Queue: 2 jobs
Job 1
Amino acid sequence: MENPYLPHTDSEIKEMLEEIGVSSISELYQRAVGKHDDIDLKIPEAVCEYDLLRDFKELSEKNINFQEYAIYLGAGIYNHFIPSALLELANRGEFLTAYTPYQPEVSQGTLQALFEYQTMICELTKMEVANSSMYDGASALAEATIMAYSLNGRNEILVSKTVHPEYREVIKTYARGKKLKVIEIEFDEETGSTDFEDLKRKLSSNTSCVVVQYPNFFGVIENLKELRELIPEDLIYIVSANPIALGILEPPGNFGADIVVGEGQVLGNPAYFGGPGFGFFATKEKYLRKMPGRLIGQTIDVDGKRGFVMTFQTREQHIRRSKATSNICSNHAHNAVMAAIYLSLLGKKGIKEVANLSLQKAHYLAEKLDRLEHFQLKFSGPFFNEFVVETDLNWDKVNKYLLEQKIIGPFKLSKFYKTLDGSALFCVTETNRREDIEFLVGRLGAISSEIDI
């Protein structure tokens, strides 16, 4: 049998082997498995399956189990209750792929689920079209800024500093390849929302788009109506939204947003170790052909029966190559299917109830903390389920103490904002029970006498 094609010549292989200090590929393999005098990979001896499973179980128990801890950490990934029926349905074999359903005749289940997903994203955001998901919220937002550039050709992106700091970094990475300029808008230090005056100062004839988050990274609900009035109509208005919050907040589409994106992890996807999640992407129908990703459409087959197909897929190399709107290929489609099942199980009333519970419990905790010695609310702006608390204590010590009480504490904001050194971001969802909130307040109320501050 002929050797498979390898791109390296014999001379190139010899050069690489010399560079790493081995004489042949056989010697390379011997070193890889530790069979060499001067190599010790410290790989333990083989054990039986029973002992191996026991060792793995002991290792797994070193991880924090969300079921055993009260969680007040959000900042982009959130702990929401996931109905048991969701995983039972999503784990069916016909759904277990993130790959593109190229063959509609054998992919009707996935295609229909994604079609329903798109419809529900449009209902939540009040936009006209949505694609069948992106990789995550950060890349969805970055893709939105690139789409804005493709629509008007202007090279300046205005993004509020109240947008998730990691999202802003991804935008800058995408922009670098297109040689676009990213300009950050300051936030109001009293309200915690985007500084309108700074926005007006930075708007110019080169501005392509304005990017805000809703609610923003501090949990504050941005005034999308007033922002729209400040932004000229010929600019692209981009909003990164929390889809759970849209259960009770006025959707961005009603305020004239041109593109609405966000992280969909909250829609039935476990937090795991921070992922995977997926990005949702919705826009106006007139921008359809500039939208990245793919769109699932409804049609009829030769027998007149309803069916589903990929209507638009103006992306990636195999379709349009250099003319593609995006290079997104196999995305997190299964995560989007999970979102479709989650939204279907909860319905409009369920999403509204989850949002209301998160809102009410967050405000209940905020009021309690604001009355404690050493703690006070940092911003005065209205908030959804996250809020910033300022203290004269050391947040590292506070969080270490809380962890000992089986409480995962807030996110320390000095990681991203040097001016907010004494502040931390608390998050509350429907999963935080009242007795757990009372316990947290009690622990923080007594903390000065229990730890060295």
Job 2
Amino acid sequence: MPGAVKKRTRTSETKKSQHIRNDDLKLILLGNLRYFHDDPYSISLNYYLVAQGSYYGGKASYVKGGSQQLSNALVSVIEENGGTVKLNSLAVEIIFKNDQPSGVRYESVKGKTKEEFSDYAGVIIVNASVPALAEKLLPGNHGIELSEKIKYIKIGATLLTVYFGFSKSLREVGNRYYSTFVFDPAIKTQKDILQNNHSGFETRSFTLVDYSQLDSGLATGGKGVGAVCCIDYASDWEGMDRKFYLKKKDHVAETIVARCEKLIPGFRNALEFVEVGTPLTVNHYTLNPTGAVYGFAQNPGKPTDYLNALPESIYVASAWGKFGGGFSGSIYSGFMTALDVLRKNRTSNRSN
């Protein structure tokens, strides 16, 4: 890291080529690239080192019971400290008074009748995507200024996920691994990775995660839960009518199941439930443009000065902030944002 910090424009690929000659070893080290990005030739070396260091050092720790348990725990902390969490609510505008942010206008999205509400605060922390903040939430020149700052920053990778429910655990079927990273044999070097991410699902690389390999708390009664994840692109799913969209999802599910069966004989017989989440699914539930799960692409030299274009008292704490996406990046962003707010309040109080 110390050497990499001085060279923000370097990519992961350039560093590997400098020190590693064996193409298979390079691919092994990039097995989990889709957890951060889609192309080794355009991911920042700094970001790759931090992300991989966290992955190796943290041993990919898992929240027992799934990520919803983490959300529940955070809700408890908020409520214990006098806060309120409002579900099924969509923020539609940040309210300004005397050209200063003063509150948020939001509407209920449950039921047929939409109700509009407003709440007010001295500090507004945004976890919506930065493009949505610029285009929909910030009024007038504030939104225009932020849009100008981000117009050349590329949006990051999107994912397709196939969710599985099993009548028995894959451990019983014979699987021995928590996560398995599968490269198609056609991938010989790093140069083949991006092209493969655009290939058909018969050959596209994927990751299979088997939650029965740990005490996940996701399934009871001897059953099991698993998932396959691969890089995908919203553009490959847009513009279809509903019938064709569902037919394509079924085809993807069958293709992935067939590949998993070859990997783990008995996989299909243990299968009880399959559901496919596309980039459009992610966009529907999170409103991230193109279903981007990692925020902005972590390209070399990616600017963060767009955060300086935010009006005073507005902060970004999400995958779209300074530290990027994933659990660690988003949580660290929230933690650092909290410190920034507290530090500013202390400074303000001393001044007063």
